[in-house]
Amino acid sequence: MQEKILDFLRKRQEYASGEEISQRLGISRQALWKHIHELKGLGYDIVAVPHLGYKLISCPDRLYPSEINQNLQTRFVGKKIYYFDTVTSTMDVAFQLGLKNSPEGAVILAETQTKGRGRINRDWFSPHHKGIYLSVILRPRIAPSQAPIFTLLVAVSVCEAIKNIAGLETQIKWPNDILLHNKKIGGILTEMSAEMDEIHFIIIGIGINVNNDKKSLVSGATSIKEHKKEKISRIELLQKILKRIEENYTLFKEKGGQPIIERWRDFNVTLGRRVKIYAHKGHIEGEAVDIDIDGALLLRSDHGLMHRVTTGDVIHCR
Questions:
Q1: SS3 per-residue string spanning the chain
Q2: In the prediction, which pLDDT does 22 show?
Q3: CA quadruple 279, 260, 140, 174: dihedral, nearest 10
């Protein structure tokens, strides 16, 4: 009912009387007052004037599903949204929902995470109401070996969305870091539930520093606000990210990984550089030559051997 009330008030430029709203929505005046009071508690600026009624002045910068659904131009990504003010990690929630057959395209959102994580169980700092922290559930019919390309696909989608909404040129450091002027602005984390030859579902976590002030950023990180010198709408940016994920995912299903890889190359800052890659069994060093059709990094060592790397920490040497 609250969404219906908001939708009614959004469409009215002037005040709407309580009697009119009650009649149109089929609720009592007392129930309407209760819903208005609750909406104010959620941060909506709604004024009430005797003999005039109610008027919506402004909406909060909160990632409420009702706000995201306004003008969300997707067919299935984000059509089901699980919203939390606080969770341990959106990835934890998404994995459990994936096991319970939550639909493809379902999005898990949080205003903050107490145990947000990046790759290799690193912490992801998630200050309240500053960034975008979400996970998306996808159910592609692919082999597990193809899963790494989804990290690239979502990284590309995030870069495209940031450019569209904020006008900033971001870059991708293989495999999952989003950079702005060589500082980290976001990261992608991909996990899956699979058998030897079949994926049940993939969950992709996204963390982006949006309106973080300098004091709320860890060393080596930056935010969109730090470069724009102004706050931007997290809702608009999130809507664009979901739209680009759906479009790039559809492209992948129709034409395979090559178009995604070509888009990734436009944003990457790793290929052609000398890098060190630290993995579980030590590290290798050499030139990052290319990525293959599944998103693995191809590295040529100083001995001329070509290595296919699917995961690891990457350090750009020069």
A1: CHHHHHHHHHCCCCCECHHHHHHHHCCCHHHHHHHHHHHHHCCCEEEEECCCEEEEEECCCCCCHHHHCCCCCCCCCCCCEEEEEEECCHHHHHHHHHHCCCCCCCEEEEEEECCCECHHHCECCCCCCCCEEEEEEECCCCCHHHCCHHHHHHHHHHHHHHHHHHCCCCEEECCCEEEECCEEEEEEEEEEEECCCCEEEEEEEEEECCCCCHHHCCCCECCHHHHHCCCCCHHHHHHHHHHHHHHHHHHHHHHCCHHHHHHHHHHECCCCCEEEEEECCEEEEEEEEEECCCCCEEEEECCCCEEEECCCEEEECC
A2: 92
A3: 20
Rounded to an integer, what distance in angstroms lies between the CA atom of residue 40 and that of residue 202? Answer: 37
Contact 112, 126 (CB under 8 A): yes
Q: How many CA atoms lie within 13 A of 253 on its CB side?
A: 10
Q: What was the pLDDT predicted at 122? A: 60
- Residue ranges and CATH numbers for the domains of the chain are 2-58 (1.10.10.10), 65-267 (3.30.930.10), 274-316 (2.30.30.100)
Cα R_g (the chain), whole angstroms: 22
Residue 51: which pLDDT band, with cuts at 50, 70 and 90? confident
Question: For residue 80, what are its two tokens?
Answer: 């089901």
Q: Is pLDDT of 158 > 70?
A: yes
